[in-house]
Design a protein that fits this description.
With about 425 residues, the chain is mostly helical. About 50% of the residues lie in helices and about 5% in strands. It has 19 helices and six strands. It has a three-stranded antiparallel β-sheet with strand order 1-2-3. It has a three-stranded antiparallel β-sheet with strand order 4-5-6. A hairpin with a 2-residue loop joins strand 1 and strand 2. It is globular and about 80 Å long. The N and C termini lie far apart (about 60 Å). The model has no long low-confidence stretch (mean pLDDT about 95). It binds s-citryldethia Coenzyme A. S-citryldethia Coenzyme A (SDX) binds next to loops.
């Protein structure tokens, strides 16, 4: 690899250093570009622009590789618990037994939410989208923990990290309970993280609720698969908001808002609604593949397909597809949309339009089928993505702060009106 890159502008040659990451990724360091050349770069959607150097997650879109702190997603999804992965992402190493028990116990101590948060929650209409509720309540948490933004207060970041991990599942279930006309549940601290979430979601005051280990295990795997994904849209949002020294609750709330978009985390809800539409329309997948190829006229987008980075199979989609078969058969669930999804995948992967654009199923394509089999309603699918992604957002925010990265403030090229004089209104 050359240690310098040359740029010739208006006949003059400029040199810029290059850097290489631990997985041999290469970059041109253009920190001095504008000062030395007067030029900036333009890169819509940041397709070629690295915002930072990070030691948390590595993914190779060409090879379909995903690793958290060097551990493969396949191994972690099979062998770890979600809290183990959360610890790994946030603190950099897999926990020892002692570290894990302390981490899990610390989280258990903070699963309850200030009762006044319920008053804020009660103000939402019953049909409020759970993602709007979640982002609002996470932002509201800063009001209950003012030391999270008080520059003069001793640093309590670690406690806020525990509070977020502990309380997000609790407040995430409130929307579902309200939509059912059921009372919310308090956490039960003898349960593990995933079982506690399921208990808060599905327990009723009139009978005992027993967590199905198959369901809890499936949820554990799904949360691990969503835990981090380097500089995706919502993570970049968390970093950017955090770079202004905004508190961690506001930064995470902003990440939840970005994740909600149908091109990002909101795709898992769109996928199920799309599959249901295809089923209602007779299940003719070839018709919908054609519509996706002519999106400009059909207005139809094949959600759950395509990815900014993966130009090969999204490794998470492979794992989720296999898990979907296993979980549905263990639960005795026969969901016709699973066959429609497989048919859609088969048709697309043999179609030149998708092959030439290297469009493969992404993490969102099959996840909703499992969530639905676990009893989770469609409008909560992106909330599940947020619960999974939370440790990744936290880890990336913490890394940005630890590395004292500067406030994010991109440049632009102005294309508007050139100087002109003000004209009084009666002369316009
Ligand atoms: C996530 O970044 C991450 O890591 C995100 C994520 C994470 O873990 O954080 O992995 C989670 O967000 C997964 C993606 C979920 N979104 C969807 O499933 C929505 C459907 N997919 C797309 O809209 C699209 O593929 C994106 C948004 C995911 C990526 O968009 P890009 O990289 O900007 O690519 P593009 O939109 O420019 O598409 C390139 C071409 C275009 O065709 P041409 O202009 O060349 O003719 O591929 C086409 C697009 O029209 N295309 C599709 C398509 N996705 C892209 N055509 C049909 N169906 C699709 N789904």
């Amino acid at each position: 690899m050359s240690d310098k890159a040359q740029l010739i502008i208006e006949g003059k040659t400029y040199e810029f250093p290059t850097i290489e990451g631990s997985e041999k990724e290469k970059a041109i360091d253009i920190n001095s570009l504008r000062d030395t050349t007067g030029y900036i770069t333009i890169d819509s959607g940041y397709k070629n622009t690295g915002a930072t150097k990070s030691a948390i997650t590595f993914l190779d879109g060409e090879e379909g590789i995903l690793r958290y702190r060097g551990y493969s997603i396949e191994e972690l999804a099979e062998k770890a618990t979600f809290l183990e992965v959360a610890y790994l992402l946030i603190y950099g190493e897999l926990p020892t037994q002692v570290e894990y028990e302390a981490f899990e116990d610390n989280i258990r101590r903070h699963t309850m939410v200030n009762e006044d948060m319920r008053k804020i929650f009660e103000g939402f209409p019953v049909n409020a989208h759970p993602m709007g509720v979640l982002s609002s309540l996470v932002s509201a948490m800063s009001a209950f923990y003012p030391d999270s933004y008080d520059e003069k207060a001793p640093d309590s970041t670690e406690l806020h990290i525990i509070r977020l991990l502990a309380k997000l599942p609790t407040i995430a279930t409130w929307s579902f309970k309200k939509s059912q006309g059921h009372p919310v549940n308090y956490p039960k601290n003898e349960l593990d993280y995933c079982s506690n979430f399921l208990h808060m979601m599905f327990a009723l005051p009139v009978e005992d609720y027993k967590v199905d280990p198959v369901v809890s295990k499936a949820l554990n795997k799904l949360l691990i698969l969503h835990a981090d994904h380097e500089q995706n849209c919502s993570t970049s949002t968390v970093r950017l908001v955090g770079s202004s020294k905004a508190n961690i609750y506001s930064s995470i709330s902003a990440g939840i808002c970005a994740l909600w978009g149908p091109l990002h985390g909101g795709a898992n809800q769109e996928v199920i609604e799309m599959l249901e539409d295809i089923k209602a329309d007779g299940g003719d997948v070839a018709k919908y593949v054609d519509m996706a190829k002519n999106a400009k006229t059909s207005g139809f987008r094949l959600f759950g397909f395509g990815h900014r980075v993966y130009k090969n199979f999204d490794p998470r989609a492979k794992i989720i597809k296999k898990a979907a078969d296993e979980v549905l058969s263990k639960l005795g669930v026969n969901d016709p949309v699973l066959e429609i999804a497989k048919g859609l995948e088969e048709a697309a992967l043999h179609d030149p339009y998708f092959v030439s654009r290297r469009l493969y199923p992404n993490v969102d394509f099959y996840s909703g089928i499992i969530y639905r089999a676990l009893g989770i309603p469609t409008n909560m699918f992106t909330v599940m993505f947020a619960i999974g992604r939370l440790p990744g957002w936290i880890a990336q925010w913490k890394e940005m702060r630890t590395n004292k990265e500067p406030i994010g403030r991109p440049r632009q090229i102005y294309t508007g009106a050139t100087p002109r004089d003000f004209v009084p209104m009666n002369e316009r």
